[in-house]
């Protein structure tokens, strides 16, 4: 598992790929519950969610 160390206000945070996948899954589940993601749009939507989270934590 790869990790990323990021300094934020003097703190070091390690974010692994597994954590990014879990967060992406939780966001996708919430969108499904709200009706924003359907089976037809899941593939593209999940990729967008996952890429956005990866970019946010600095794992481009």
Return the string of H and E elements. EEHH
| Overall shape | elongated
**Annotation, overall tally of beta strands:** 2
Structural class: alpha+beta
Relative strand content: 15-25%
Number of helices: 2
**On the 0-100 scale, what is the average pLDDT?**
85
How do the strands of the widest beta sheet line up side by side? 1-2
* Chain oligomer state: single chain
Residue ranges: pLDDT <50 for 5 or more in a row?
Answer: none
Biggest sheet character:
2 strands, antiparallel
Ends distance = 16 Å
Number of domains: 1
Rg, alpha carbons: 13 Å
Helix content: 55-70%
Describe the structure.
By secondary structure, the protein is of the alpha+beta class. It has one domain (17-60). Helix content is 55%, strand content 20%. It has a two-stranded antiparallel sheet. A hairpin with a 2-residue loop joins β1 (3-8) and β2 (11-16). α1 (17-34) crosses α2.
Q: What distinguishing features does this structure have?
A:
2 helices, single chain, two-stranded antiparallel ribbon, 60 residues
């Amino acid at each position: 598992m790869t990790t990323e160390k990021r300094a934020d206000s003097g703190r070091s945070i390690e974010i692994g790929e597994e954590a990014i996948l879990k967060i992406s899954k939780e966001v996708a589940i919430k969108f499904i519950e709200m009706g924003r993601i359907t089976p037809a749009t899941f593939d593209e939507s999940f990729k967008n969610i996952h890429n956005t989270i990866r970019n946010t934590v600095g794992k481009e």
